[in-house]
Amino acid sequence: IVEGTxxxxxxxxxxxxxxxxxxxxxFYNPEMELNRDINVAATAAFVKRLLSRKELLRxxxxxxxxxxxxxIRGLRIAGEVGIHATMxxxxxxxxxxIKENIKINGLEEKTxxxxxxxxxxxxxxxxxxxxIDPFGTPSPFLDAASASVRSxxxxxxxxxxxxxxxxxxxxxxxxxxxxxxxxxxxxMGLRVLLGACARELAKHEKGMSPLLSHVTxxxxxxxxxxxxxxxxxxxxxxxxxxxxHCPKCGFRGPVYGLAVHIxxxxxxxxxxTQIAGPLWLxxxxxxxxxxxxxxxxxxxxLNTKDKAKKIITFCRDELDIPMFYDQxxxxxxxxxxxxxxxxxxxxxxxxxxxxxxxxxxxxxxRTDAPIAEIKEIIRxx
Length: 381
Ligand code: SAM
Description:
By secondary structure, the protein is of the alpha/beta class. The chain has 2 domains: 2-231 and 281-317, 3-Layer(aba) Sandwich (Rossmann fold); 325-380, Phenylalanyl-tRNA Synthetase, Chain B, domain 1, CATH 3.30.56.70. The protein is built from 14 helices and 15 strands. The strands form 4 sheets. It has a 7-stranded mixed beta sheet, sandwiched between helices. A 3-stranded antiparallel beta sheet has the order 11-10-12. The protein has a 3-stranded antiparallel beta sheet with strand order 13-15-14. The longest helix is centred in the N-terminal third of the chain and has 20 residues, at 33-52. The N and C termini lie far apart (50 Å). The mean pLDDT is 96. The chain binds S-adenosylmethionine (SAM). Residues 27-28, 32, 36, 65, 67-70, 72-73, 89-91, 94, 117-118, 133-135 line the site of S-adenosylmethionine (SAM). S-adenosylmethionine (SAM) binds next to helix 2.
């Protein structure tokens, strides 16, 4: 198969459509091409930033694909971004396939195949860019990844049910955070993951700033600028906190900080609230970085270019106000019919509020309008 300009050999799945990619001797999921296309563009954009700091030459930037399977992710970085990539997988079949795929692409000089437990490798070696794309949760690998990483940490999580609060106990076990299964559960999942990454990095006296994160289909993906030092770490932890949710009236609000007192009563309707956290409450992407990724998407030959551009553009244009609203949920409560989302956004702006769409769903929006005003505006539409 070919993704971007990289050609790899992967196990051919039987014609039976129920056969999951994880049942193959070596894993390859064609649905993750979009994730890997964005990875090529985001890594290329980040490498340009690293090189502009003049501390490094392109040949010296080292990337690790710690859970490599066929090698596709790391090979694409070596071939399409042009930096050194280590592809690691503890499976003997995967290790052999990675070596074969390195040869197919003639990338022997720019790559290294290893067959280790990812945690062992990441505790042994330091890399500028650490990419962890395991099965399910990245949580057992975040400590080692945080120890290893020097410049950018890229993380995929496919355990959306624990992250989003659908499997509450599993979420608490994996991330030491309480998620809430609300209509904005996808954003909840992203903020649980980002919060966990910030706390893992903090143990190694590294701060972080999210460059880009998105929730697409069944996974969460984040690209984090890693900022070493105690000052940066303490500054990062200021973006951690809790989120209050009122199940009665729909009020939601952030409470910044870990050592905080939280009122259980909803400030709008007085009902008992629910509390999620600790969570990342800061921005989950940097607008300038999104622009740089969009420029990279333009210049690389990618099969999912249009979809990728749409996602990154939505991410870029979202307001930095935690926890979106879903128009359909509010309309259902009010017995009102939903308008086009753009019409609602125009109406909110016309009332002097900030409002934007989100990449999380087509019926969702962000606004600084209080819940009572949002309902009034929806009723009047
Ligand atoms: N990154 C790949 C891609 O984009 O196609 C997919 C990786 S797949 C989801 C996870 C891989 O991690 C499997 O090939 C599995 O053998 C490997 N793996 C699982 N646990 C591991 C561990 N602790 N150390 C190293 N490899 C591991």
